[in-house]
Amino acid sequence: MQRVACLVSYDGTNFSGYQVQPRKRTVQLELERALTKLHKGQEIKVISSGRTDAGVHAIGQVIHFDTSLHIPLERWPNAFNACLPNDIHIHEVRSVDPQFHARFDTEGKEYRYRLLLKKQGDVFRRHYTHTIERDISMERMKCAAQYLVGKHDFSSFCAANTDVTDKVREVTAIELWKDRDEIIFSFKGNGFLYNMVRIMVGTLLEVGYGKLECDDVAQILAARDRMKASKTAPAQGLYLWKVEYPNPVFHI
């Protein structure tokens, strides 16, 4: 048996999230269905670096699985992609240590969020950006974002229905920049809670609109109360951009 890791991208538009769910189309389901086909009916389970929600996309998701097939590594992407739907793509396949674990070995992740500044919207980007139709201040959002950098209890920025008890995470960097008619948010950290990035974006947008002051974010963080933060930003603007490991597996 050989353990392999894959660098995976997917368009989350038509998926009910990453994780297998009864009677729903998910990324994990399609990956495992393709591998079962490649393995002539043998069920193969995949482990990912983490889940993504319905409508959320991935540029640099990482998965691993064990295989008995003797396919040269350079041929794996073509073989795998031939069995996958066109909204999932395998970029690279690497042989890894038998102890490698795509989830438990993660050292950090980067998520990006795309905000479209277009009053009439864009029919071709409606599934890949969150459109806003009003003026917004990047400088105010940059100021507020710095209150979120560091090691904190992010209870205020976590979905209320989560069963996770330890909500301390470290956000190592938050950056914002403009790319033509879009604002891009980048969030880097050692781990993220359920809906954490989208709630942070939703709160920063309220600062950008002038509904909240920059230092209000510090008070929201300190409250440890989901009701104090703003609405969760829509899923379609969010991308799992990159997953970091102590020994780099892929370079993107």
What's the pLDDT, averaged over the residues? 96
The biggest beta sheet, please?
Answer: 10 strands, mixed
Strand content: 25-35%
What shape does the CA trace take? globular
The tally of beta strands, per DSSP, is 10
Discrete helix count = 5
What class, by secondary structure content?
Answer: alpha+beta
Report the uncertain regions. Answer: none
C-alpha-based Rg, rounded: 19 Å
Give the helix proportion (percent range): 10-25%
Distance between the termini: 27 Å
Order of helices and strands: EHEEHEEEHEEEHHE
Describe this structure in words.
With 252 residues, the protein is an alpha+beta fold. 19% of the residues lie in helices and 29% in strands. Strands 1, 2, 3, 4, 5, 6, 7, 8, 9 and 10 form a 10-stranded mixed beta sheet that branches. The radius of gyration is 19 Å and the shape is globular. The mean pLDDT is 96.
Give the arrangement of secondary structure elements.
Blueprint lengths: L1 E9 L16 H12 L8 E2 L8 E11 L8 H6 L6 E8 L12 E10 L12 E3 L5 H8 L4 E4 L14 E12 L2 E8 L6 H14 L6 H8 L14 E7 L8
Parallel strand pairs: 3-10, 5-6
Antiparallel strand pairs: 1-3, 1-4, 2-3, 5-9, 5-10, 7-8, 8-9
Helix pairs in contact: 3-4
Core attributes:
5 helices; alpha+beta; 252 residues; single chain; 10 strands; globular; 29% strand; 10-stranded mixed beta sheet
Short description:
By secondary structure, this protein is α+β, with helices and mostly antiparallel strands. It has helices spanning 27-38, 76-81, 138-145, 196-209, 216-223; strands spanning 2-10, 47-48, 57-67, 88-95, 108-117, 130-132, 150-153, 168-179, 182-189, 238-244. Helix content is 19%, strand content 29%.
